[in-house]
Design brief:
This protein is an alpha+beta fold. Helices cover about 40% and strands about 10% of the residues. It has 2 domains: about 80 residues, no CATH class; about 70 residues, Arc Repressor Mutant, subunit A, CATH 1.10.10. The two termini are about 35 Å apart.
Length: about 160
């Protein structure tokens, strides 16, 4: 299969809306959220996704979180935008995130541990002076970033490594 990640996304949204035995059902299917019959077949979902900007660096988002997964109510956004939206009820645009990151870097550059290890975002190649700086710059949980370096998990949609 060409788009394994996209297929997993399709399976995941269908599972959380249709399978009462999944842990997330109560937040989706349990609240009446459904998947449009337009997406009963993976090929239809895949066609929509590709034509609407899907890439492996994006996450599906329901524009109105009270409405169904359907072509009219879904879009692709970055993982960090999705995290921000899920936790704060809004999307932080890349430009806003950049401005916040610059301000935080300026503020914390003199307050960071000089003995801290540098950390690199594998997907973007950006190097941060510490886990604290990376987590503050991207609005991520510091412990989650640290754990992702040890176990190879993603945090904020990215893989991390110490350098």
């Amino acid at each position: 299969m060409k788009n394994k990640r996209l297929y997993r996304t399709w399976v995941s949204i269908r599972r959380r809306c249709n399978n009462k035995n999944t842990k997330d059902y109560k937040y989706y299917g349990g609240k009446g959220i459904r998947v449009s019959s337009d997406w009963d077949q993976f090929s239809s979902f895949e066609e929509w996704a590709i034509s609407h900007g899907y890439s492996d660096t994006m996450s599906i988002d329901r524009i109105d979180s009270n409405k169904d997964y359907c072509p009219e109510n879904c879009r692709w956004i970055t993982f960090s935008e999705n995290d921000s939206r899920a936790h704060k009820g809004q999307i932080i645009t890349p430009e806003q995130r950049k401005n916040i990151s610059e301000k935080l870097k300026d503020y914390y550059s003199t307050r960071l541990n000089p003995n801290a290890k540098k950390i690199k975002c594998i997907e973007t190649g950006v190097i941060y002076n510490s886990v604290k700086e990376a987590s503050l710059s991207l609005g991520l949980n510091k412990c989650a970033v640290q754990c992702s370096t040890k176990k190879g998990y993603r945090c904020g949609g990215y893989h991390w490594e110490y350098i």
